[in-house]
Amino acid sequence: MKDTPIDSSSKDSGGDGSNGPSNRDDDILVRVGLLPPGHQPLHLAQREDNEKTSVVVRYVDDVDEFRQLSELRRKGWESTDGDKAFQAQRQRADNLAQDVSKFNYDLMGKIANELHIVTGAFKMTPGGPKKKGRVLDLCAAPGGFLNTAMRLNSGCDAMGFSLHPKEGGYSNLLSPFRKRCMKFLDVTMLAADMGVAEDEIPIDHPDADKFLPRQIEQGDYYDLVLCDGNVLRTQDRSSGAGKPSGASSDDNDSSKNTNKNYRDLYENYRLKYVQLALGLEHLQPGGTMVVLLHKVEMWNTLCTIRRFARFSDRVHLHKPRVSHTTRSSFYMVAQGVNSAHPDAVAAVAKWKAV
Ligand SMILES: C[S@@+](CC[C@H](N)C(=O)[O-])C[C@H]1O[C@@H](n2cnc3c(N)ncnc32)[C@H](O)[C@@H]1O
């Protein structure tokens, strides 16, 4: 690792000193702009991710492009203009959740088109000349991706889930003819699909009454699976106050977090893993998955990409030019995914167990 001075503002990060090496790891991530100065580690999973990400950062610390990017990100954290721009972006996103604009729907369509031009991902090639293909979108509203898939694969089967607008989700803007394929539900509550039987849910679980019965039949396969969900700040997750009784004590070892809503602490992981697990489980062998990811140098993100590379013919990473330009987000397009490969089956089991 380079002996580069650590940003003095980062010395606050890490809290009470009981976190051992993760304090130093967080300092490195603050220096390269992957964490904001003064960041407080939330929970064990995030601390472990930070610790391993710092190994990646040390590895690429000598690369000119990475150093330039780090410098830009660090300036971004310090700039009040940047704060204002992101604040305005958050406000726009929150307003969209209440009143989804056609603008966002069109934007998602443009992103899908761009992804398709670069990778050909949205045109399905199902087995057999008469088959039209099947598409599953796990976080579909307002519907730009699903509309693109249906437009490029005339007559295909389509199914989409999305958070209900009453729970803070986006509206379904698909044309009246296509609208019916989208169902509003919270995918993180798909307990039966994730392999948890009703009688396995502890009765004192804060969300016991919200878990859902099976929505995708076993052995039901899709040629194209879209995983574009991101956690919405407008979503009401309040009933999940406290810690679920099934959680291990390690999950929540930071005493600061005992009164926090468990869903606020873990929602990113819950949403990511439910999409990956159900998406890959129900992908036709040889099919395509389009997955929204964040921060390519984060350990967790790299592990996801590496995992797909083991059982896919091609894995393409694409940052759209029409959007996401000032964010860390990008898309992974995995094609020729052998979902029956033992590593794929093991990945689904692992994600379901998280
Ligand atoms: C960026 S938008 C997806 C846009 C979509 N790909 C399109 O083409 O229009 C993210 C979506 O994730 C959904 N979402 C977030 N949390 C969810 C959850 N727990 N269950 C289902 N959908 C969720 C949001 O409601 C929103 O529709």
From TrEMBL:
It holds the Pfam family FtsJ. Residues 1-28, 235-259 are annotated as: Disordered. One of its GO terms (biological process) is methylation. GO terms for molecular function: methyltransferase activity. Gene3D superfamilies: Vaccinia Virus protein VP39 (3.40.50.150). Residues 130-336 form the Ribosomal RNA methyltransferase FtsJ domain. Residues 1-14 have a biased composition (Basic and acidic residues). Residues 238-259 have a biased composition (Low complexity). This is Ribosomal RNA methyltransferase FtsJ domain-containing protein.
